[in-house]
Input
Amino acid sequence: MAQVRDPNEAGLSVVVRGEGEREFMKAMRKFKRKVAESGIINDFRDKQYYEKPSDKKRKAKKQAVRRQQRALLDEKNNY
Output
């Protein structure tokens, strides 16, 4: 990664204001929650490697079947 001399030209930067470790940990929890909710990590993982469209469809169908089977098992166990 190339170094940027001007901090205004750098990508994302985060500044945590407050004293002590508690403030930092609170800010870290908030940051992690917001990143998880926005789906940035999942998008990065999905786009990290190329996946053929047919493989994507196959994977989605497999997940749907598993979800349906799990729902049937839960329904059967509830009765």
Remarks:
- Residues 56 and 62 are 10 Å apart (CA to CA).
- Residues 50-79 form one domain.
- The chain has two domains: 14-48, 50-79.
